[in-house]
Design a protein that fits this description.
Blueprint lengths: L17 H4 L10 H13 L5 H14 L5 H11 L3 H18 L8 H16 L2 H21 L6 H10 L14 H12 L17 H24 L9 H18 L11 H13 L11 H23 L1 H4 L3 H12 L10 H18 L2 H7 L3 H13 L3 H9 L1 H8 L17 H14 L1 E4 L4 H4 L12 E3 H11 L9 H15 L2 H5 L3 H11 L11 H13 L9 H12 L10 H16 L8 H12 L5 H14 L1 H4 L3 H15 L9 H19 L1 H4 L3 H26 L3 H4 L13 H14 L3 H6 L2 H13 L6 H21 L22 H12 L4 H16 L8 H22 L7 H14 L1 H11 L3 H12 L11 H19 L6 H54 L6 H17 L8 H4 L13 H17 L5 H10 L12
Helix pairs in contact: 2-3, 4-5, 4-6, 5-7, 6-7, 6-9, 7-9, 8-10, 9-11, 10-11, 10-12, 11-13, 12-13, 12-15, 13-16, 15-16, 16-17, 16-21, 18-21, 18-24, 19-20, 21-23, 24-27, 27-29, 28-29, 29-31, 30-31, 31-34, 33-34, 33-36, 34-38, 36-38, 36-40, 38-40, 38-41, 40-42, 41-43, 42-43, 42-44, 43-45, ...
């Protein structure tokens, strides 16, 4: 009787579509031998022998080119000789379909035949096989049904099949399985849970979703209602098929309303909600039914029902307001089970968690507040606080998996208080979230005098004149629990909940007077640290609370707070209870305080504790490294005096743990290198500030020397074999490429600080640079933030070589006999390999690499023996830059500039070689290069050149190219016109920038004098910028839609960070070139040819005004 009424309102289909009744056309396509071979290979994929599996997979891949191959897999998935073979066939077919679904031609008969056969197979296979095959079906649906909308018959035919399926038609012998058909429906509707067209500001309901809802989902609601009536009694769980039917239909409803609201579904929401409430009311949380087969399905259906409530309240307020009373009444009963949360299985706890989330979302609406606010007190007392109290599950997790305990209970990112959080998977987190929302809720009006109650005209502060529930309800409730004076279990457990509650009040406390939070912390948190026998569970939670409230604390509390946290940071295990979470949360709290500029009154006690824990090789040393990094970055000025001593200590400890072989470095070593890199960077950044005073300058230089020596010792220990070996030859067994980015920072610190040639020998600079160059030459783990240090080190290496001619920089050392007299790879060659590879990586790497190209080619003094290295460098760099340019040249984008400038630098070094290279890559590649170079030189290019160095480089390259172009006569005339015009326009821009720079230099002194007077005005301007109108939701959606359209049209190309685009290029020896004289010589040599180009008169006039010496050659044009 359960399914009798299904589709009573629908006309009986005259036929079942051919897609579902056609017999799979398999046996007459493949001979029996091939079918048996495929079946045998599938069996072999189940072998425990990896070699057998690989061989079988390769053979299947070879057979997969046959057009009948997927049909054979379908046949085996349905009627294979055993379950393992069926699942193997389904698994291979899933992977095969995912690989080929986008390349299938939907107009071919085979493809239509395959997808129809696939649906038929889904309707017949067993549950285990269905689970695998449906994943492949989703790939087909995404392309054929959603993206292309090329399967119009699927929905009506699926409707017919559901009507004739075994449960609906009450026919156990039916060819179609109802559960399988509903699974297909679930896959069909699943993609529409998201918005699919980001180019639209407001996306309408997709027509496919409307069709599915109208033709199938709405009629299925009759079955859904009958199922909910049958399962309404929790003491009698219904059969698995009924529970499965409920769950699948519930999922379909959720996907239908998660983002959209189909028109056919909206009028039925009240009845749907009543059915969902009936399911939720049938739940039992006593643990007695959770082991039964159908009850886990019931709980999953309940979870999905609560997600539907959340979606309705958040996305569809228009329909949800009238449904909220029944929702709240239902979920209020569920959250009352929070006192037994420790006895619930994860699925049941997730259900309670979602019930809290529903209340949070309801409370954030106007009607919801009026509905929930009368029950605040009972919610807090009977549901929220019991979920916060410590329980047995917390104790077990603390001991068995402390990291998981910290992640779940003491996170560091709970500042946002909103019912819209999707990551609150535990009941405690959801309860804290709800408590935060309640604390901000307004209470009754506060009685004030008439004068004080008058508002200024236009004032819109809705909270003014009202008290909050945090003040009226939450804090008074929490104050009922005294600070524990003993270790009584109940007292400790309850106060644990109090501390948890305080952590959720950040937004509420931010709105209070400055001393409000101080009083709370002084009276309710800090006393815990002074108890004779501290409770680790309470101390860890107190640490977390202090970190969460960092932004609300006043300076007057910092001594007491840091004293308490330092105690916690060095707390050892107590009575067999691990204090690892105590130390971790103390370190995290100190980090949060420092990041909020809440600094300790004295650094030394804190640093002594941190360094002591590191030197003791504690298992939690990683947290101390992270803490050191945070403190250095957040408070460099206060922390910097201690950096050299800490560096020496860390180097000593790290050297003990470095492996002697080529194995990867331990995590502790990697973390220490990262901390040292942060300290090196902060010490460099403090140089300009310290050097303003002579005494400070000497102190800074002394610290720099100490750190250079320590870093060199560490890198030698990590990279070089032994000191005795280094006296004769460099150890070229390249070490493991661990921490290359951090090592680059340390090496760069050494290179930048060298002021004498003797330092090169003392610090083994050449040897270290050579090993480093080998490491980066083989670098493949490209990462934008990490690679920056390597690029910076390259620039420092080139500058150092220019000063002191570093050994092995240009030409590698000859090996000792009897090895062949072939030079080993030089430092420059390793750098060149890294830069060449960078040209093919992410945009920021291209900008950085191109900046390094100019330094490499024009800064080092290439002696005769180094010319071959330079030529090889030009060849590799030019090939890489031009190849990358070809990939993006169809769209004029900023990334053109660095690539073309890099090729221009190469061209100035070896013109003939560069021309040959680009011509070898592409026919008329040299013409393409010069044409693009001319384009970026003009103001018509949207991303035209802006710096003097860039413009100078382009003008020199264009001038160099005229010899080639003028010799080509007919084929070069148009390009010659563009190049000359661009050369003249670029030269004009160069002269203009020169004049502006001179004017700025003249005005610099007067501007410095006026800067003090304007400081206040600037501050006011900054304040006014803060008050600028925020972007509205509509404007945000419009901007996103525009960006999505541009991305689809290909008009947006990733360009990298703005900082990388603003990198100043260094021209080295080209800086001494007189650009004006270069241009004058070109005009003088080719003026007769230039007169025949018919250049724009205005351009010639402006050019002659900037370079009057050329008037003699342009008299005819004038």
């Amino acid at each position: 009787q359960l399914f009798v009424s299904f589709y009573n309102s629908l006309p009986t289909c005259v036929f079942v579509a051919a897609v579902f009744v056609r017999v799979l056309p398999l046996r007459h396509h493949l001979d029996v031998m091939e079918i048996h071979q495929i079946a045998r290979l599938l069996n072999q994929t189940l072998s425990p022998d990896g070699a057998v599996i690989n061989a079988a997979t390769d053979a299947l891949d070879h057979l997969s080119t046959l057009s009948e191959f997927p049909f054979t897999l379908l046949s085996i998935a349905i009627g294979g000789e055993n379950g393992g073979q069926k699942v193997a066939a389904a698994t291979y077919l899933r992977n095969f379909t995912r690989r080929n679904v986008d390349s299938i031609d939907t107009n071919s008969g085979i493809t239509k035949e395959f997808r129809d056969a696939f649906v038929r197979a889904l309707l017949q296979v067993e549950p285990m096989t269905l689970k695998v095959l449906v994943e492949a079906f989703r790939s087909i649906i995404a392309v054929e049904f959603v993206k292309k909308d090329a399967w119009p018959e699927l929905v009506p035919e699926l409707r017919s099949v559901i009507q004739r399926s075994d449960l609906i038609d009450k026919n156990p012998n039916s060819e179609w399985k109802t559960i399988n058909a509903l699974t297909i429906l679930h896959s069909l509707i699943r993609p529409f849970q998201y918005f699919l067209n980001p180019k639209l500001v407001k996306e309408p309901v997709p027509p496919q979703l409307e069709l599915i809802t109208r033709e199938i989902l709405v009629p299925l609601l009759a079955v859904f209602h009958l199922c909910t009536e049958k399962v309404s009694d929790a003491q009698h769980t219904s059969e698995v098929q009924t529970e499965t039917t409920l769950l699948i239909i519930c999922k379909c409803i959720y996907f239908a309303v998660k983002s959209h609201m189909p028109s056919a579904l909206a009028p039925l929401l009240p009845s749907i909600c009543q059915d969902l409430i009936r399911i939720l009311n049938s739940l039992s949380f006593d643990g007695g039914l959770t082991c039964k087969d159908g009850y886990s399905l019931r709980m999953k259906t309940a979870k999905r029902s609560l997600l539907i409530f959340c979606a309705l309240v958040s996305r569809h307020r228009k329909f949800a307001d009238k449904l909220m009373p029944d929702m709240v009444k239902c979920v209020s009963e569920i959250v009352k089970h929070s006192p037994i949360i420790n006895k619930l299985d994860p699925l049941s706890e997730r259900t309670v968690s979602l019930a809290f989330d529903v209340i949070s979302r309801v409370l954030e609406t106007g009607p919801g507040w009026r509905l929930v606010s009368p029950h605040f007190s009972s919610l807090l007392n009977s549901a929220i606080f019991p979920a916060l109290v410590k329980n047995e599950k917390d104790t077990i997790e603390w001991e068995e998996d402390p990291d998981e305990y910290i992640r779940k209970n003491l996170p560091s990112d709970l500042e946002e208080i909103s019912g819209l959080r999707d990551d609150l998977f535990t009941a405690r987190k959801s309860a804290l979230n709800l408590l935060g929302v309640i604390s901000l809720s307004k209470g009754p009006p506060v009685k004030t005098s008439t004068a004080s109650s008058k508002r200024k005209k236009g004032e819109k502060n809705k909270r003014k004149g009202y008290s909050s529930m945090g003040e009226l309800l939450v804090l008074p409730f929490l104050s009922k629990f005294p600070v524990p004076t003993d270790n009584g279990e109940n007292t400790v457990n309850e106060y644990y909940g109090v501390l948890m509650a305080y952590s959720s009040l950040l937004d509420f406390l931010t709105e209070q007077s400055p001393g409000f939070t101080d009083t709370l912390v002084r009276n309710r948190v800090l006393p815990l640290y002074e108890t004779p026998t501290p409770q680790p569970y309470l101390i860890a939670t107190a640490n977390w609370v202090l970190g969460e409230l960092a932004s609300c604390l006043s300076e007057g509390m910092n001594a007491d707070i840091y004293s308490s946290l330092v105690k916690a940071l060095q707390m050892s295990d107590i009575g067999g209870v691990s204090c690892f979470p105590v130390r971790v949360t103390a370190a995290a709290a100190i980090a949060q305080l420092v990041e909020n500029e809440y600094l300790p009154p004295e650094w030394l006690p804190l640093l002594q504790v941190v360094c002591h824990r590191i030197s003791d090789e504690e298992e939690d040393s990683s947290i101390y490294f992270q803490l050191l990094s945070t403190m250095v970055e957040a408070a460099t000025e206060k922390f910097s005096p201690h950096i050299p001593d800490i560096v020496c200590l860390l180097v000593k400890e790290t050297s003990k743990n470095l492996p002697l072989d080529l194995e990867p470095w331990p995590q502790m070593v990697e973390q220490c290198f990262a901390t040292l890199a942060v300290m090196a960077q902060c010490w460099e950044n403090s140089a300009s500030e310290e050097n303003e005073q002579d005494d400070s300058s000497q102190l800074w230089l002394s610290g720099q020397t100490t750190m250079m020596r320590a870093f060199s010792d560490l890198l030698q220990h990590a990279w070089l074999r032994s000191a005795s070996l280094m006296e004769h030859e460099v150890a070229f067994s390249v070490p493991h490429s661990s921490c290359v980015d951090d090592c680059s920072t340390l090496l760069g610190f050494i290179l930048q600080g060298i002021t004498q040639a003797d330092d090169l020998l003392k610090l083994k600079v050449s040897e270290l640079m050579l090993v480093w160059s080998y490491l980066i030459a083989d670098w493949h783990a490209w990462e934008e933030m990490e690679d920056l240090s390597t690029f910076n080190c390259i620039k420092k290496a080139v500058i150092l070589h220019k000063k002191f001619a570093v050994k092995n920089f240009l030409v590698g050392k000859l090996p000792l006999p009897p090895a062949p007299p072939v030079p080993q790879k030089s430092i420059l060659e390793g750098i060149g390999a890294f830069i060449t590879e960078a040209c093919s990586q992410y945009p920021s790497a291209v900008w950085r690499a191109s900046s390094c190209v100019h330094i490499l080619l024009h800064n080092p003094s290439y002696l005769p023996e180094g010319e071959g290295v330079k030529q090889s460098l030009v060849i590799s760099l030019c090939q890489a830059a031009f190849s990358r340019f070809r990939e993006i040249r169809n769209q004029p984008v900023p990334l053109w500039n660095p690539l073309l400038l890099a090729i221009a630098s190469c061209y100035l070094c070896f013109p003939d070689i560069v021309e040959k290279i680009v011509e070898g890559i592409e026919h008329e590649g040299f013409t393409s290069f010069l044409s693009a170079l001319a384009i970026i030189s003009t103001s018509r290019f949207d991303h035209s050149l802006s710096s003097e160095a860039e413009i100078k480089l382009v003008v020199m390259a264009l001038a160099q190219s005229l010899d080639k172009l003028i010799g080509r006569q007919n084929e070069g005339s148009l390009l010659l016109h563009d190049c000359v015009a661009s050369l003249m326009e670029a030269f004009l821009k160069f002269k203009k920038l020169e004049e502006e720079e001179e004017e700025e230099d003249e005005d610099e002194e007067s501007e410095d004098q006026a800067s003090g007077d304007e400081e206040t005005e600037d501050d006011d301007d900054e304040d006014s910028e803060d008050d600028e109108r925020e972007e509205t939701e509509q404007e945000f959606l419009e901007r996103c839609a525009k960006t999505a359209a541009e991305m689809e049209n290909g008009t947006i190309v990733e360009e990298g960070d703005a900082e990388d685009q603003e990198l100043e290029i260094e021209l080295g020896c080209l800086e001494d070139v007189d650009l004006e004289n270069t241009v004058l010589l070109v005009i003088e040599r080719y003026h007769q040819v230039l007169l025949r180009l018919h250049l724009p008169p205005e351009l010639i006039s402006n050019f002659l005004e900037a370079l009057p010496e050329c008037k003699l050659y342009f008299q005819q044009a004038i």
